[in-house]
Design a protein that fits this description.
CATH architecture of the largest domain: 3-Layer(aba) Sandwich
CATH class of the largest domain: Alpha Beta
Helix content: 10-25%
Number of helices: 5
Shape: globular
Radius of gyration: 27 Å
Largest sheet: 4 strands, parallel
Number of domains: 3
Low-confidence stretches: 205-237
CATH superfamily of the largest domain: Peptidase S8/S53 domain
Distance between the termini: 38 Å
CATH topology of the largest domain: Rossmann fold
Mean pLDDT: 85
Length: 403
């Protein structure tokens, strides 16, 4: 579904952008499954009307994937909208080249931009059945939008928060992108899909058994009562499957010596990965509702636990994560995006901190750790003052307050 509010020269107004956002929000509220909008547009002027339109979209469960902008600036200090809005339903996309370097035109921002995706020299369609190569964060944005829609079709039970979490927490780390985006990395579609586990394949529908219509006998006949026969309990015969996998670090290199503990119905098995980071077990009993659990252990690393039905041969990719991460954030003024110093950020079990002169705060956290943040300040009101989540990498949160 395409929504057009820009003219043929690419200009438009925020008021028309608000109408476009509200259109999809209203569809969502009426039950139309509009998961996200892909926004290859933006501007530097702040609009409270646009801010509240994004709020309404968040309340309806609608993701907004937005281009970070093409001015080669840090949008933490020079915001670009809607990509710099602080709501958690906004994903801001920067542009990278085919060689992995940042596109020279692309904006960036440690807290205001989320992820890099291909945006230089992208082949695109044109009117009159033709093609041309274009560059810009407008070209990078649809890569992320398409990845999320792919994930939504693969795992339709996921809500917008889980979709956002999956695409951002599985970004492939790149040292060149440290502190340029909140994930420090680039879009990784395969890791994103594997992070939610395999989708079970439904079995064939059972064939209904027809019950014949009984014609009553005019003259009743005495019928001896039959002796009931006990129905035997049927125990399914297990099938046997092979399970193999590979453990990779954030650079995609196989990790040797990782302990792999596999638990199935018949018992537990332990292996250590080889020089390529691989392991393999053959002829494990499965089938039916039998499950397999895989847990990995390595010094200084954490891994997501893996569990699924064992009803097919499995090839599993495990991604290693550093044991320690940072939960960073920034608190800004709603009207002009300037920082709010000395705001109180209550992290529950993480403790309580106050923002510095740049409005920034930080907590040390671990992979898989649940968190709950709440912000307050005597001089400001926050429409969205509390957020929760699970750590799946370095994480950034933003809050906006108004007088």
């Amino acid at each position: 579904m395409a929504l057009k509010f820009l003219n043929s020269s690419g200009s438009g107004s925020y008021s028309d952008a608000v109408r476009a956002f509200d259109y999809v929000t209203n569809l969502r509220n009426r039950g139309v499954d509009v998961r996200l909008s892909s926004n290859s547009w933006g501007g530097t002027g702040y609009s409270s009307s646009l801010y509240y339109a994004v709020n309404r979209a968040a309340s309806a469960g609608h993701l907004i994937v937005a281009a970070a902008g093409n001015s080669n600036v840090n949008t933490d200090s020079s915001p670009h909208y809607p990509s710099s809005f602080t709501q958690n339903n906004v994903i801001s996309v920067a542009s990278m080249q085919s060689n992995g370097a940042r596109s020279s035109f692309s904006n960036w921002g440690k807290t205001s931009v989320d992820i890099f995706a291909p945006g230089s020299g992208i082949l695109s369609t044109l009117p009159s059945n033709s093609y041309a190569y274009y560059s810009g964060t407008s070209m990078a944005t649809p890569h992320v939008s398409g990845a999320i829609i792919l994930l939504a079709s693969y795992a339709p039970h996921l809500g917008w928060e889980a979709l956002r979490q999956a695409v951002l927490t599985t970004a492939s780390y790149r040292s060149a992108y440290n502190n340029l985006v909140s994930t420090n990395g680039i879009l990784n579609v395969r890791a994103m899909l594997e992070s939610v586990g395999p989708t079970p394949t439904p079995g064939p529908s059972p064939t209904p058994t027809l019950t014949p219509t009984v014609t009553p006998t005019p003259i009743p006949t005495n019928t001896p009562t039959p002796t009931p026969t006990n129905t035997p309990t049927v125990t399914p015969t297990p099938a046997f499957y092979d399970v193999s996998g590979q453990v990779k670090d954030s650079n995609g290199t196989g990790m040797a010596g990782v302990r792999v503990d596999i638990t199935v119905e018949s018992g537990s098995f332990t292996q250590f990965t080889d020089a390529a980071g691989r392991y393999e077990l053959n002829s494990l009993p499965g089938g039916g509702l039998r499950t397999i659990q895989v847990n990995l252990t390595a010094s200084g690393r954490t891994f997501a636990p893996y569990s699924t039905l064992l009803n097919q041969n499995l090839e599993i990719l495990h991604l290693a994560h550093p044991a320690n991460y940072q939960l960073n954030g920034r608190v800004i003024r709603l009207q002009d995006a300037l920082p709010i110093p000395n705001a109180r950020v209550d992290g529950g079990t993480l403790g309580t901190v106050y923002t510095d002169n740049n409005g920034d705060f930080s907590f040390p956290v671990s992979w898989g750790q649940s968190y709950s943040l709440s912000v307050s300040h005597d001089e400001y009101i926050f429409d969205n003052r509390s957020v929760t989540g699970i750590i799946r990498g370095n994480t950034s949160r933003r809050f906006a307050g108004k007088h």
